[in-house]
Amino acid sequence: MAKRPTFLQSCSDLFKDRRGNFAMMGAVMVPVLLATGGVAMDMTNMLMAKNHLQDATDAAALAASSSLVNQSLTQAQAKLQAAEFLKTQMLNWARSGMSAEEIAKIEAALSGTSINILEEKAALGNAKKYTVEVSAKFDLPLNAFTRLLGKESTEIGALSKSISSTEAKNALTMYLVLDQSGSMASLTTTKNPDQPTVVCGKKVCDNFLSKIAALKLATANLLTQLKIADPTSSLVRTGSVSYSTKMLPALAPDWGVTGVLSYVNALPASGSTDSSGAIETAYKALANNSEDSAHKNKNGQVPKKFIVFMTDGENNYYNGKSNDTGSDTATKKTCDNARTQGIEVYTVAFMAPTRGQNLLKYCATDTAHYFPAEDAAELTAAFKYIGEKASQMAVRLTK
Length: 399
Description:
Elements: H1 7-16, H2 21-69, H3 75-94, H4 100-110, E1 114-121, E2 128-141, E3 153-166, E4 172-179, E5 187-191, E6 197-200, E7 203-206, E8 208-210, H5 211-229, E9 236-243, E10 251-255, H6 258-265, H7 276-287, H8 289-298, E11 304-311, E12 317-318, E13 321-322, H9 326-340, E14 344-350, H10 354-363, E15 370-373, H11 376-391, E16 393-397
Helix pairs in contact: 2-3, 3-4, 5-6, 5-11, 7-9
């Protein structure tokens, strides 16, 4: 009769038996391996989701800042714009690989996006500075393998901040020197936006802007940029002078832009061309110590000074008689003096011949200050750029 094994012997035999070890180890390790693979895939998804959300918050913050500094939206509207922009960006991404239920959860989470706008006044009270902060988060669903570890989702978050401002960084005086000679009465290739057609005889004809009309529209655009930067007329002074056969009565610099706008809108077009007296008048007005004193008493600053010199032709008159070179020589001498005094000279050649272009290229502070304009649209664009450059509008991302 065989001897019955003792309890201790049975336990010893069990531990020594290696049969079935692989199956047991597999039963334990397979879920672990699947979960590990799931975590690896989800880490990639989390990184992509984080990048998408950061890009979306960055774009939303910049969009709101740009709208505020350009004064196209109120603060409430800018917040709505930023929130809708962010949500649209993220939902487009989510629809590429998520279920309708998961997308709905993300949409609900993004509805709670935090958007804060802080408006600050500059020291002199004329400029506005906006800080836009966009903070968003949502729960990213995890895949079935990762859920074996007991976690259904993970939170993804992002924060972006942008700063925008509209400001005249320095007080400034700008003097416009404008050609109103007879050639300014000729037509451009641009239709009048207010009345594109007219009746001529028994048919309808295109109604093209004259050069002088295009100049008035472009000047208004430039002055608008300065007005936006200085709505209280505490930093910006403007003046203007026009010329044809001789310099016409000038408008001395004064606060704001209203006087210059009225002056330019009243300009006729007649006569020959002599820019020498007009450019000298602008230079002397800006170089005069009284201009610095006006700013010191008003805003405590030393102003930047600008001349905007425009022509559509070439000088052909000087000292009361026809002369092809005398006015050019005198004008160049004044431009040299302006450079010596640190006055920035912007020049715009409006459909001008070669000699007129060469004169303005010479007078410009540098090549970036010279603009050739071959039609009314290019003239307006040049004047607008000059106004924007002077008023220094800026938007930047800080975080």
